[in-house]
Amino acid sequence: MLELRAVTKKYGHKTALNALSLDIQPAEFVVIFGPAGAGKSTTLNLIAGITDPTSGEIMLNGHPMNRVAPENRNMSMVFENYALYSHLSVFENLAFPLRARGMGTPEVKQKVAEIATILQITPFLERKPGFLSGGQRQRVALGRALVRDADVYLLDEPISHLDAKLRHRMRGELKALCQRKEAIVVHVTHDYREAMSLSHRMVVINKGHLMQFGTPDEIYHTPANEFVASFVGEPPMSFIDTRYAQYQGRVALLVSGTETQPVHLPVNGQAAEFLGRAQPKTLRVGVRASDISIERSASAKHDIPAEVYVVETLGHRDIITVKIGAHLVKVVAAPGMNLHVKDTVWVNIGPETYHLFGDEKAIAHPTGKRKPAPVAAPEGV
Ligand code: ADP
Ligand code: MG
């Protein structure tokens, strides 16, 4: 088990990582996910021992790592900038970590051939890194980390420079390979599909702070806060500013900016009770395009009026942006609805379809039937 206990890293006055605590189980594949500057590389470097924490502790299988030198940690890392040996051939780059551990030439050859096949770099084995494309170099870097056995693999954006098709394939290979190794993998990415399709659990961080640590399903369906909700999913979740109101004798959410022609969103009993008690300063409703739908006429279910603002045709489905008050909300529509800008439509935004956030923290999640999180779909779908 790999544990981080309140690990903080400061560079001068800047806190790159703020009291991060994690427990990573044996053979677990954990993805660290966050935007640029979130502290992802810092976290990996701390685990590897390349940088020392300002405070906090890192434990591997019950042993404190803080004073263990990087080379004695039995961790294998892919660096964001590859860090290949430019004077050595691809073959020798891949062989290096094996020879360094005293492995004999026949076995080295076999191991290098195996990993080269998986990563599709066999044709370049005799070349020097300087003669490879960025994507090829990145696969060599990944190969050099995975070719040897280690307790922990630390992969910093290891497939980010591959084209979409190859990245999709390498994702599958990486997952299969790591499963066979039965080691801990900590993989960094800023691509949520990669994070969701690879990980057992994902760590979402922003500005050095842990936002959520959970399974892809938990992250997608029960985001802990607005940051996680808006950062995971495509198209991004739409948000509607609301405020606490009474409507027809019940607690409701009045959509901000619709005061002249009030639009109220219903609230279920539990959330209503919470709102009555907690009275958060900001109250925002979040909806995923695939959780809501539109109809041409009002019904008991589709009772929120909206105006068509943008129609995007994607072939198998359309993404319609509608306006509710001044808020733009994206919704998936079946092709053939033949919608036009300025058409009036009716949307089903209620407790069964929305996430509710108070002061940016989650209060409620959709109560309706969950659709599977989009883990397997290739990019752009
Ligand atoms: P990520 O990998 O998520 O993009 P990093 O972990 O590289 O982010 O960086 C987190 C923050 O720490 C950033 O604001 C970055 O500028 C800062 N940082 C990282 N390394 C150093 C360093 N060696 N010196 C000063 N600041 C650093
Ligand atoms: Mg980084």
Q: Could you explain the architecture of this structure?
A:
The protein is α+β, with helices and mostly antiparallel strands. The chain folds into two domains: 2-225, P-loop containing nucleotide triphosphate hydrolases (Rossmann fold, 3-Layer(aba) Sandwich), CATH 3.40.50; 231-364, Nucleic acid-binding proteins (OB fold (Dihydrolipoamide Acetyltransferase, E2P), Beta Barrel), CATH 2.40.50.140. It contains nine helices and 21 strands. It has helices at 40-48, 90-99, 105-118, 134-146, 164-181, 192-198, 216-221, 226-231, 269-278, and strands spanning 2-11, 14-24, 29-33, 55-60, 63-64, 75-78, 152-156, 184-189, 201-206, 209-214, 238-247, 250-255, 264-266, 283-287, 294-295, 304-313, 318-324, 327-333, 344-347, 354-358, 361-364. The strands form four sheets. The protein has a six-stranded mixed beta sheet with strand order 6-7-8-3-9-10, sandwiched between helices. Strands 13-12-11-14-20-21 form a six-stranded antiparallel beta sheet. Strands 15-19-16-17-18 form a five-stranded antiparallel beta sheet, with no helix packed on it. Helix 2 crosses helix 3 (105-118). It starts with a strand and ends in a 17-residue tail after the last strand. Residues 377-381 have low confidence and may be disordered. The protein binds adenosine-5'-diphosphate and magnesium ion (MG). Adenosine-5'-diphosphate (ADP) binds next to strand 2 and helix 1.
